[in-house]
Amino acid sequence: MKIALIGYGKMGKEIERIARSRGHEIVSIIDLDNQQDFASEAFRSADVAIEFTNPQAAYGNYLRAFEAGVKVVSGSTGWLKDHGDEVRRLCTEGGKTLFWSSNFSLGVAIFSAVNKYLARIMNQFPEYDVTMEETHHIHKLDAPSGTAITLAEGIVENLDRKTHWVKGTFQAPDGTVSGTAQCAPEELPIHCIRRGEVPGIHSIRYDSAADSITITHDAKNRGGFALGAVLAAEYTAQHTGLLTMEDLFPFLKA
User: Fold this and answer.
1) What are the C-alpha distances in Å from 178 to residues 53, 131, 141, 171?
2) pLDDT beyond 70 at 38
3) pLDDT digit string (tens) for 77-91?
4) How open is the CA angle 235-239-242, to the nearest 5 degrees?
5) Which of 18, 20, 22, 76 is the S-S candidate for 58 at Cβ 3.0 to 4.6 Å?
6) CB 59, CB 83: distance < 8 Å
7) pTM, whole model, 2 decimals?
């Protein structure tokens, strides 16, 4: 398979390593200094482009790739609020293909399924309240993380006493804390921490007067995310439309 990379930071380099180890060819690498290569024959020859950039660049990158006739796999977050409807329309009505996930980690996919299952169980036990905490490296621009939002939506869908998530406290890299831990009973707070070079930790805690139940996913490095992105690219090369991890891993639909 021919793969183009959009974004060549730490994640892009790890994706390149894993893609090559699986026998794929990297035909184009686009970063900040060579945006003109979206129009190149090398980029147009790609079966799939894998995009990991930032909330400000992602939507424009999708449009340039679509214009070149290239399918996209993307893990960029923070763009859905402003451009989600248009991207959905392009994929459902305009014949374009985007595989998007807030997190491509295989472990997070399993964790997400466990999260939904646990929420369905806890729906029977109103004495437990639920909160979430996510920790990421200091370079991450969005808070809460896209993964935290996806996990929170999985809880809200399965826990009747929670109607929506809210941003709770935010601990900045310098240790200062803003926001509040207080919220209404129907709200699910997501508390955010930014420190060091943490790849990503997500913890969901159910707390009662008697005890607590906590599930946690702790990423050790970027390898799991990169492998998932390459697996998604392999899937996307054979499929069209708006694709998600539920398409790649049907157990997430359970």
Assistant:
1) 27, 17, 16, 7
2) yes
3) 889 889 999 999 999
4) 100
5) 76
6) yes
7) 0.78
